[in-house]
Every structure is written in C-alpha cells, then in structure tokens.
C-alpha cells in the first residue's frame, strides 16, 4: 500500500502536467493560428492596395457626364443611309438603277468595314435628290417603318448594353452620325436614347429642298457638334464618353475623357492601342475577314444583292 501511495501522487502530478502541457500547446496553436490569419489578411490587403483599381464607370449620378455614340457599324451593322435607301425603293421613291447603286455601296461598306467619304457623299447626294419635294413628316413616318424592316435586327447588343449602362447611371446618351438627323432621331427614340446629332437637310415649310444645311456631320464636324452640345448642356467633356468604329471619328473620340473604339477599323485600332484607349469588338469572324477578303467574296456579295434587287423588282411588275 505504501508503494501504491507513493505512485499515486506521481501519477496525479503527471496528469496535471499533461493537462498543463496540453493547454499550453492549445493556446500556442490558437495564438499561432491567429497570427497567421492576421499576416495573411495583411498580405491580402497590401496586395489589394497595390493593384490598380479601375474606377467605376459610368459614374452613377454624374450629371456633368454624357455618352456620344457613332451609329454606322458602332451601334448598328452597316450604314443607316443605305438601309434607308432600300426602304425608299420599296416604297417606289426611285428607280431600279438607284437601288443597284445603293446595293453596291452597302456591299462595299460591309466588306471593307470602313467609311469611304466618296461613297458616303454619293449616297447622301442620292438621298437628297430622292427626298426633294417630300414632306419632313412623311419621311419621319416612313423612317419608323424602315427601322422595323431593316435596322432593328442589326443593332449590336454589346454596344446597346454600353449605352444602357450610361442611361442606368442617369446620364444622357446621344447618337452622333453623318446620317440624316431624321433617321438618327428615329433610331435614338426606338433605342430609348436621349436624342441624336445628324446631318441636317434643308426644308422650307416642312418640305425638303434637296440641299444640306452646312455640310455632312462627318469627321471634325462631329467633334464640333459634340462640343457645342456639351456647352449647351453644361457637360464636362473630360467626364464624358464617346464610342466609334472609324478613324474618321478620332477628333470626336479625342475630345472626351473616356474614348472607346468599338468594332474598330485598322487605323482606329492602331491609334487606340497607342493611346491606351478601351477597345470592344462585337463582330464574329470580322477581324480575320478584314485582313484580306478575296475578290470573289466581294463579287459574290454584290451578285447576291443585285439578284435580290432584281427579284424584288420583278415581283412588283
């Protein structure tokens, strides 16, 4: 029993020491874990602080900012004036030879993916001669129908989403295009945008004279229109955004603090990359096609458009 009495205290003492050791180990583990978590948290916060953060854009509630969108091949695939011409031919505003002209210009535009000033001027001259003597109200009404027939399905969803983001932020969104202002206004209204800047055709007593007021809204003229509108609206251009596909619109893009190259042609893409502008491309397979299009492709596209025009003409007669 004596022996047992001697052993029992030692066993109890060992147990106490074990408990103490266990508690100490657990406490050390907890402390070490907490320190590790703190170090990891610090590292994460430091890394986050070091990473450049892109500010939220568009800025919600910034009423000094607005967005300006080019139309042709930026908001809509193809050129509005050509689609408008197709609609006018359907309504017998002009003869078949004029339609062939529009078909060729549209085929060229779709294949090249860029605006050619000579082609665009030719299209505008044709349109002006066609609408001469017609009432502005009549063309506006027809424009609504033509939008549904030829334009609605050609709106780029990606660009439409960009415009909507500005609207959701409480900002005004304007189309800026060389197309007639009446067409541009119809498109802007149908897309829920604020309004449109476009080429103004002269009218007297609500009837088109066949002449322009000033010059087409193209290139530098777009920049001047945006500058004038910004002044009238009390906007800060440094906080505004502009979107275009064409190098012809570099003056407008350079005017704002947030320029975007949308479905850009080669010259604009190069310019945008050199200046670290943002780029968006919503085309499918267009990049490769634009590098080099076989001549046969162009001939095929024109032949297809011409065949469709002839078929339409024959059905009418």
Describe this structure in words.
- This protein is α/β, with parallel strands linked by helices and 317 residues long.
- Helix content is 58%, strand content 13%.
- The protein has 12 helices and 8 strands.
- The protein has helices spanning 2-50, 80-90, 96-112, 117-131, 136-151, 157-168, 181-190, 220-233, 250-253, 266-274, 286-291, 295-316; strands at 66-69, 172-180, 195-199, 201-204, 207-212, 241-244, 258-262, 278-280.
- Strands 3-2-1-6-7-8 form a 6-stranded parallel sheet, sandwiched between helices. Strands 4-5 form a two-stranded antiparallel ribbon.
- β4 (201-204) and β5 (207-212) form a beta hairpin.
- α2 packs antiparallel against α3, α3 (96-112) runs antiparallel to α12 and α5 packs across α7 (181-190).
- The protein is elongated.
- Mean pLDDT is 77; it is low at 1-12 and 286-317.
Strand content: 5-15%
Principal-axis shape: elongated
Q: Report, as a whole number of angstroms, the end-to-end distance.
A: 128 Å
Query: Looking across the biggest beta sheet, what order are the strands in?
Result: 3-2-1-6-7-8
Low-confidence stretches: 1-12, 286-317
Described by strand count, sense and barrel closure, the largest sheet is: 6 strands, parallel
Helix content: 55-70%
Radius of gyration: 33 Å
Order of helices and strands: HEHHHHHEHEEEHEHEHEHH
Mean pLDDT: 77
Give the topology, please.
Elements: H1 2-50, E1 66-69, H2 80-90, H3 96-112, H4 117-131, H5 136-151, H6 157-168, E2 172-180, H7 181-190, E3 195-199, E4 201-204, E5 207-212, H8 220-233, E6 241-244, H9 250-253, E7 258-262, H10 266-274, E8 278-280, H11 286-291, H12 295-316
Parallel strand pairs: 1-2, 1-6, 2-3, 6-7, 7-8
Antiparallel strand pairs: 4-5
């Amino acid at each position: 029993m004596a022996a047992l009495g001697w052993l029992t205290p030692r066993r109890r003492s060992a147990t106490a020491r074990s408990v103490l050791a266990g508690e100490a180990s657990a406490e050390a583990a907890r402390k070490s874990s907490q320190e590790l978590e703190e170090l990891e948290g610090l590292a994460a916060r430091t890394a986050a602080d070091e990473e450049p953060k892109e500010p939220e854009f568009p800025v919600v509630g910034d009423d000094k900012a607005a967005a300006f969108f080019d139309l042709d091949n930026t908001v809509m695939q193809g050129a509005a004036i050509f689609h408008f011409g197709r609609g006018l031919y359907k309504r017998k505003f002009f003869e078949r030879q004029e339609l062939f002209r529009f078909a060729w210009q549209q085929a060229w535009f779709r294949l090249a993916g860029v605006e050619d000033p000579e082609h665009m001027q030719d299209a505008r001259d044709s349109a002006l001669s066609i609408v001469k003597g017609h009432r502005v109200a009549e063309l506006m009404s027809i424009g609504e129908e033509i939008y549904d027939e030829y334009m609605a399905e050609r709106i780029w969803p990606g660009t439409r989403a960009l415009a909507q983001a500005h609207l959701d932020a409480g900002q005004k969104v304007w189309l800026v295009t060389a197309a007639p202002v009446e067409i541009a206004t119809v498109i802007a209204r149908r897309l829920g945008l604020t309004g449109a800047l476009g080429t103004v055709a002269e009218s007297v007593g609500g009837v088109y004279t066949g002449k322009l007021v000033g010059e087409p809204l193209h290139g530098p003229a777009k920049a001047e229109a945006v500058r004038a509108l910004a002044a009238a609206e009390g906007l800060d251009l440094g906080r505004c955004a502009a979107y275009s596909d064409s190098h012809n619109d570099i003056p407008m893009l350079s005017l704002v603090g947030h320029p975007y190259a949308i479905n850009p042609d080669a010259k604009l893409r190069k310019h945008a990359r050199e200046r670290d502008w943002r780029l968006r491309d919503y085309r499918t397979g267009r990049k490769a096609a634009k590098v080099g299009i076989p001549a046969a492709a162009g001939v095929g596209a024109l032949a297809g458009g011409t065949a469709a025009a002839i078929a339409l003409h024959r059905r009418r007669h």
